[in-house]
Amino acid sequence: MGEIRNFRSGNHDEPPPHSGMPRRLAAIIVGDIASYSRLMQADEEGTHARVKRIERDIIQPSIIEHHGSLVKTTGDGFIAIFDSPVEAVRCSIVIQQNLVGRNASIPKHSRLEYRIGVNLGDVIVEPDDIYGDGVNIATRIEGIAEPGQVYISGAIYEQIKHKIVCGYESLGDRKVKNITDPVRVYRVLPDADAVGRTRSRRENALIFLLAITVLMMAAGVLWYLLAQPGRVGEQAAAPPAAPAASPIPQAVPSEAATHTPQPSPSLASSPSPPAPAPSPSATPLREPEMIAIRGGTFAMGSNDDPTERPVHQVTIKPFSIGKYPVTVQEWNECAAAKACGFTATGKDDAPVSNVSWTDAQQYVAWLAQATKKPYRLPSEAEWEYAARGGTQTKYWWGDKLQPGMAGCKDCGELAAEQPAKAGSFKPNPFGLYDMGGGIDQWVEDCWHKNYQGAPSDGSAWTSADCSSHVLRSGSWKNDSRYVRPSNRGGYDTGVRYPTHGFRIALSP
């Protein structure tokens, strides 16, 4: 860490006295390796080689994928700038989650873990460096971050808080070196469910104390009620003029109480505690509706985008595919069975969203186990074949955009600010709904930047580093280019995003 600290404090706090220097508002990422000096001392050449591999395999590709620019690497760290705060934070999450996978098999004391700080500021831009308080604040935020964590400034938080579905833990205002005003800092929790797990230890402690208080009060009330019969008996026995037979009436209530557990049939039908609700396992599983696809040969891809080339012939075997994307209700059955990682929000008949590829795999594994059927994600080739519905036009309905055919940003009157319920638009010739627009849909394949070397038998293409997987269909937030059956994109395997969902497939 010493290298990056000395470099920054020497050069970034006092930019060179040039006149007319270009400035821009940018989101700045500063990353730095924790315990770098110790790791270098233990294995200098090995650590250096590992750092360079991480820069080549994870950091640089992630920055490019999220439309940023790598300003420089600094031995044990890096600096990057982005036009979009959303993309800067998303890139930071992807880097950290990919590093988790990279470190999984490495002993803890040997892991390369990055601290990442993100800030939004006006900076001076030079060909090989950037300067200004915006960079300095990002550097200071990175300096207080925990290894493996992403910390952001309040300026970044205000830009992204309603745009990225993840959690944020406020760390309050922090006084940082060489910055006059305190900086509000947030820790990013990329798993949306982590919000509830880490919201506030003080809240959890308060809830615990409140529960103890309620239990004590309940115990006091119970003791009081149980003690009442004894007091009544004592008061009844106290008067000296009481007849000798007075103990008998006292015994009658206790005798009646002895026989109370054997009521008559009429008493047995009186109000009693309600029967417990059936457990989730007792509820019949509703399998997603499937459409059988006969299979055949088609021309996969297009010349509209480099990622869709070359156009190539693919033969598809018969299979079945979901008539609709998986819905919130279907997903939550998996969540209720504790087999899926979170409970989805939204209307039951809306497509489930904010799902990573890993989440989708959890669902199909649970469904396959519960039904004893080989459910899976469709391959990319199967998805395109099904989406085309036997056509070879730009869209399944023709070469020109038509209103009311798909849910996207410029698809007509039914376009909205959120996904419409599954089946809101017309089905394609195979009877499938939302095969274009609505919700992005994960498929089985690893991401490849084009079709060079792709299989021709319709199987999933998994011979690659599967840190990213393929998405199809486009969503309500995309324009009509994404609705084309040939359109394809890739995204990080383990990261959830608000427009990402999926549909399922089944081999015969």
Topology:
Elements: H1 2-11, E1 23-33, H2 36-42, H3 44-65, E2 68-73, E3 77-82, H4 85-103, E4 114-126, E5 129-131, H5 133-144, E6 150-153, H6 154-160, E7 167-174, E8 183-189, H7 194-198, H8 201-237, H9 247-259, H10 265-268, E9 290-293, E10 296-300, E11 312-316, E12 319-322, H11 328-336, H12 357-371, E13 375-376, H13 380-388, E14 440-446, E15 468-472, E16 489-492, E17 500-502, E18 505-506
Parallel strand pairs: 4-6, 14-17
Antiparallel strand pairs: 1-3, 1-4, 2-3, 4-5, 6-8, 7-8, 9-12, 10-11, 12-18, 13-18, 14-15, 15-16
Helix pairs in contact: 2-3, 3-4
Report the major sheet: 8 strands, mixed
Instruction: Write the CATH fold name of the largest domain.
Output: paralog of FGE (formylglycine-generating enzyme)
Let me know the number of strands: 18
Our count of helices gives: 13
The overall pLDDT, averaged over residues, is 81
